[in-house]
Amino acid sequence: MPDSSDCDTEDTSTSTTQGSSSDDSDYDFAKLASKMPMRGKVTERDPNFEKKNKCKCDESCSSRTCSCYKYGSGCNSNCSCVGPCGNMFQHLDYFFGDGEKCNANPCFAKWLIENGNSETALKSVNREDLRKRILECDSYEDLLEDKDFKKWKKEGKNIPLDQELAHSQKLFRMILSDELDSQLFYSFCQGDVFNIDNGWHCVTCQSCQEWREWHCGYCDKCAYGTTCERCGGRSEVSSFFS
């Protein structure tokens, strides 16, 4: 049987160990909190809707530093461009038709830039190949469920040869423009058509995202789910899942 001095020594040792564990726990929590500075706060923002009505570029408006170019739109009469304007999105009527005031949606704009940043490159895109690319996508059967697409397809039956281009341009306005009435967009990132409720293209991250993904304004990067894994910020819909 141990004497009383042995028992006292053992108790003291146990107490010291427990105290050390508590200190480590507090330290870990503080360390974790410092890495999640926006924990619990809503940090979501949508960079796709931050377009300004005009630019004031002192160069050629041919890079994403131009607010018009960044959002796939041509410059307009409100702009204060200095010198010749080289914004290739001035020529989107090649895809969308004469007199149609449409901008390229973010994914189409990225694709056009990657395929040559100039009016010449834009107008060298084979529109018939582009049309086939859209209609041969994996989600074609889903397209048939969309009322606007069904109407477009019906209109194309026995269409005169001289109206085929205008018919294709109507498809491009539905799928490739930022037309607010359209529920569909073609993702060049994924090579498929998506409903806007199921996917979107982030103009800042320059990639297509699932509906579960959102842009964190604090980190300036897209996050998955309701919480940003980098800063702890939350999406606007996170309260519905709390």
UniProtKB/TrEMBL annotation:
It comes from the Eukaryota. Residues 1-11 have a biased composition (Acidic residues). InterPro entries: Tesmin/TSO1-like_CXC. Residues 1-27 are annotated as: Disordered. Transmembrane segments: none annotated. Residues 50-91 form the Tesmin/TSO1-like CXC domain. Residues 12-22 have a biased composition (Low complexity). This is Tesmin/TSO1-like CXC domain-containing protein. It comes from Pseudolycoriella hygida. The lineage of its organism: Eukaryota, Metazoa, Ecdysozoa, Arthropoda, Hexapoda.
